[in-house]
Amino acid sequence: MNAPIADSAVTRRHPPLDSDAFDALLARLTSEFAAGAAHHDRTAEFPHANLTRLHEFDLLSLTVPAALGGAGASLPQALKVVRAVARGEPSTALVLVMQYLFHHRLQGNPHWPVELRERVAREAVRDGALINSLRVEPELGTPARGGLPSTIAKRSADGWIIDGSKLYSTGSPGLTWLAVWARSDETPPRVGVWLVHRETPGVRVGSEWNHLGMRATGSHELVFDNVFIPASHAVDVHPPGEPGAGLDALGFAWMSVLLSAVYDGVARAARDWFAQWAAERTPGNLGAPLASLPAFQQTLGRIDALLFSNRVLLDASAHTEHVTLDEAPLVKYTVTNQAIEAVQLAVEASGNPGLSRDNALERHYRDVLCARIHTPQNDSVLQGAGRAGFAAYVHA
User: Fold this and answer.
1) If one looks up domain 249-391 in CATH, what number appears?
2) Cα–Cα distance for residue pair 286/293, rounded to 1 Å
3) DSSP H or E run through 191
4) Burial of 220 (0-12, 13-18, 19+ CB in 10 A)
5) Rounded to an integer, what distance in angstroms lies between the CA atom of residue 364 and that of residue 133?
6) Phi and psi for 286 in degrees, rounded to 5?
7) N or C terminus of the chain: which is more exposed, having fewer CB within 10 Å?
């Protein structure tokens, strides 16, 4: 496991990553974020204050390498932080996951100019600058299912001009850097990532994020209208089909574990609400709390069994030597579906109170359902797993 920074020139504001004091800090942040979660859900207001708090304790730069001032965190350490944040306010946690995933892989990407890699990393440490990959488009949908982007990068005399739009740009109100997936206007075109600063003229919000759950992620459409960037900002661009810096087994493990942890955290918050509600709810005709009834005890037991399975799977998968490239999507499938089932059990048992907008469980239910839309989706996971499973029995 990687050690936290000790020798960096940057002063650390958090205790060592593996300590009782660090665990206490995370518990405090969970409570703080939970107190404002209903407001963020109701207003869809981006959680700037939560992210400022995370930066205050150097948690936005957790996966930046130690040599550049970050904590050089391991996957188990990143998992610990994401779990805590998600249990309090999951939209904040999703933005944090995107930050962790990008910085975990950035310095190992040989296609980026060194000075840009280091600039993005140092700004995350110093300023809490956020970055995310923008890939989904209105016509294309998710690129995981194939196709070339419609967003175009045109050569200019001293750089590139970007035109197009991206949907579901998670974190967009707080991002400093946009890693935009596009294709060049060359023949044949090249495809890859052009790095755009959020404040560049011509970048604007199109349609705003207005979804059932995870409402505070700021996953707006971003429109690029004649956006100029320097030539060096074509950071990872290749002919179609040529290997680039795509996700390897380690990258897929990080994505599957941390993304799943967001929705596991939602389910745990739902579980806590249900347990407290059943312990306090005392119908007049019963004369005792609902928690005294075998049916409610069994429901909580089923929920806890699902969440126990999630915890064991996430902890084991965080030690990535246990997860292959084919298995990583199954982590996401299993954990998120068990999280959804756990919340559904609580909703079913609580009845009308569980669906009341006055109670947190209704919000947790909407949030946890959003797990289904993340790549890879359930059908792709199962088809891929089935194809791999049959491979040993089907001979050409």
Assistant:
1) 1.20.140.10
2) 10
3) strand 191-197
4) buried
5) 26
6) -100, -40
7) C
Report the alpha-carbon angle 356-357-361, nearest 5: 70
Q: Which of 115, 20, 100, 14 is nearest to 62 (CA)?
A: 100
Q: Give the homologous superfamily in CATH for domain 20-128.
A: Acyl-CoA dehydrogenase/oxidase, N-terminal domain (1.10.540.10)
376 cis-preceded (ω within 30 degrees of 0): yes
The pTM of the full predicted model, rounded to 2 decimals, is 0.94
Q: Are 219 and 209 in contact (CB under 8 A)?
A: yes
Q: Residue 8 has which token pair?
A: 């960096």
Domain boundaries, the chain: 20-128, 133-238, 249-391
Helix 294-318 to helix 75-88 angle (10° resolution) is 150
Q: Alpha-carbon distance 145 to 367, whole Å?
A: 24
Smallest CA-to-CA distance from 100 within 65, 126, 67 is with 65
> 133-238 domain in CATH 2.40.110.10?
yes
CA separation for the pair 381, 370 (Å, rounded) = 16
Q: What is the pLDDT of residues 169-208, one digit of tens each?
A: 999 999 999 999 999 999 889 999 999 999 999 999 999 9
Question: What are the pLDDT digits (tens) for 99-152?
Answer: 999 999 999 999 999 999 999 999 999 999 999 999 999 877 555 555 789 999
SS3 label, residue 233: helix
- Report the DSSP beta bridge partners of residue 153: 162, 184
Residue 214 phi, psi dihedral angles, 5° rounding: 45, 50
